[in-house]
Amino acid sequence: MLLRSFTHSNVVMILNSFVFLLCCLLVWVWMKWLRVKSYWADRNVLYSPPHPVFGSLTFLQKENPAIWLKNLYKQFPVSYCGVWLFWRPCLVINSPDIARRILVKDSDNFRNRHISSGSSDPLGSLNIFTVNDPLWTSARKRLTTVFTAAKLRAFQSVALHKSKLLVERIAMDNKNGVRTDIRNIFTDFTTDVVGETVFGVSSNSIMNEEGPLRHITKELMTYSTYRGLSACCVFFIPELINVFRFKFFPKDLQDYLRSLFRLTVEQHGGYEKEVTSNRDLIDAILKMRQDAVKEGQEMSEDFLVAQASIFLQGGFDTSAVALTYIIYELAFAPEAQERLYEEIAKTKERIGDKDFDATTLSEMPYLNAVIKEAVRKYPAMAWLDRVASKSYEIDENLTIEPGTVVYINTMGIQNDPQYFPEPEEFKPERFLPENEDQITPYTFLAFGDGPRHCIGERFAYQTIRYALAHVIYNFKVKKIENSKRPSECSFEKKGMFLTPGETLFVIFVPRM
């Protein structure tokens, strides 16, 4: 009887203790939530009330972040506003002048990014896109040599050859009566270009839609629920990466990329063979490692694989998507398309039997204006994220604390009629040399700016120019009857980048 009473007393005491601790926890969470909820109000910053769990990210998996940022820009037509990445306050910058200060003038205080991956994901956490200081400074310095003018010239023969195959592929599809899925065909093209220039892997995805890397790029284009959740954590709440073991690249792809990298290094003669050529980016990466070793610095294999992997991801998808939007816009803008064709045709007449080269293409003003207008309307990433390393005065009314996340609202700024009249219209003329001086500085940020601007910008432009010049020179692009206008098309809901949410088709009509 005494034992039963003692046991009962213990159970009651344990339950009471549990209830007490639970109440304490709930009170702590509630007090924490009140501080989080009032964060921007306490600083007199405009904001939209946060959700108690998701903060401002209630759109996740329901719409693309670009739409959220575009709507936020319209909702708060001021220099900045406050949002929450779950419970973490974030300042969204809508002002080009403040963007300039953060990205360029005061960039030393904003070297790091919020986007990150965990220690359990070396390929995701060590690549130049996500890595932070002090490793970023060293990596950026060394990787800048990868995209020198000399190396880009070495790569142009690949882009030229693949562009000719692209023309053949379109002609073949036309002959067979196949409707052209433009994103698919351009991804075949960029996969081949990037595969050969990054890994030195020669493939023919353009003609047969298969190849050593094509299954990887197909998987990277597909957003399952798991990949969507992984991306949400990497981009918005990286603290959860290690908890749930999420990865920037799916594990099976990581294993394949490591194997491919090792095989390619072996074909190049191994790590110790002195690099004397610029055949591909693997040569440049190996040279970077050899230089680091000479200076007494260690550079892990995962670090090297991470750079090759992010160049593959960034190189194939952003260029393919840009080409997709360009061609689709031109199908609805016949006058712009004809003007572009005339420029290409006149250039071809001038160079005669010679092939287009990178220099010739870069000197074609309307071609370059078309590309810039497309990435203005459809920036690959709708925001530029930075983290303040120390307190920083935004203006006389606001000083942010160390560790504050800052988003430059690229999507909002680049679609603001104040800077780009009729922003929904496709008007390449905005970016012609005689008009560019009318563009407000730091309102065109498709590739970022400052020390952390896109390292592959010139490579992307070169790849897009080659494909676009060859396609428009050989084909007239027409819209399919009853197809959606560009402004009516949807975007990928589960992805973080601004990619099409539906298949886009056009008709290619041979010019000759």
From TrEMBL:
<keyword id="KW-0503">Monooxygenase</keyword>
<protein>
    <recommendedName>
        <fullName>unspecific monooxygenase</fullName>
        <ecNumber>1.14.14.1</ecNumber>
    </recommendedName>
</protein>
<dbReference type="GO" id="GO:0020037">
    <property type="term" value="F:heme binding"/>
</dbReference>
<keyword id="KW-0812">Transmembrane</keyword>
<dbReference type="InterPro" id="IPR050476">
    <property type="entry name" value="Insect_CytP450_Detox"/>
</dbReference>
<dbReference type="GO" id="GO:0005789">
    <property type="term" value="C:endoplasmic reticulum membrane"/>
</dbReference>
<dbReference type="InterPro" id="IPR002401">
    <property type="entry name" value="Cyt_P450_E_grp-I"/>
</dbReference>
<dbReference type="GO" id="GO:0005506">
    <property type="term" value="F:iron ion binding"/>
</dbReference>
<keyword id="KW-0349">Heme</keyword>
<comment type="similarity">
    <text>Belongs to the cytochrome P450 family.</text>
</comment>
<dbReference type="InterPro" id="IPR036396">
    <property type="entry name" value="Cyt_P450_sf"/>
</dbReference>
<dbReference type="InterPro" id="IPR001128">
    <property type="entry name" value="Cyt_P450"/>
</dbReference>
<keyword id="KW-0479">Metal-binding</keyword>
<feature type="binding site" description="axial binding residue">
    <location>
        <position position="454"/>
    </location>
    <ligand>
        <name>heme</name>
    </ligand>
</feature>
<keyword id="KW-0472">Membrane</keyword>
<keyword id="KW-0408">Iron</keyword>
<dbReference type="Pfam" id="PF00067">
    <property type="entry name" value="p450"/>
</dbReference>
<dbReference type="InterPro" id="IPR017972">
    <property type="entry name" value="Cyt_P450_CS"/>
</dbReference>
<keyword id="KW-0492">Microsome</keyword>
<dbReference type="GO" id="GO:0016712">
    <property type="term" value="F:oxidoreductase activity, acting on paired donors, with incorporation or reduction of molecular oxygen, reduced flavin or flavoprotein as one donor, and incorporation of one atom of oxygen"/>
</dbReference>
<feature type="transmembrane region" description="Helical">
    <location>
        <begin position="12"/>
        <end position="31"/>
    </location>
</feature>
<keyword id="KW-1133">Transmembrane helix</keyword>
<keyword id="KW-0256">Endoplasmic reticulum</keyword>
<keyword id="KW-0560">Oxidoreductase</keyword>
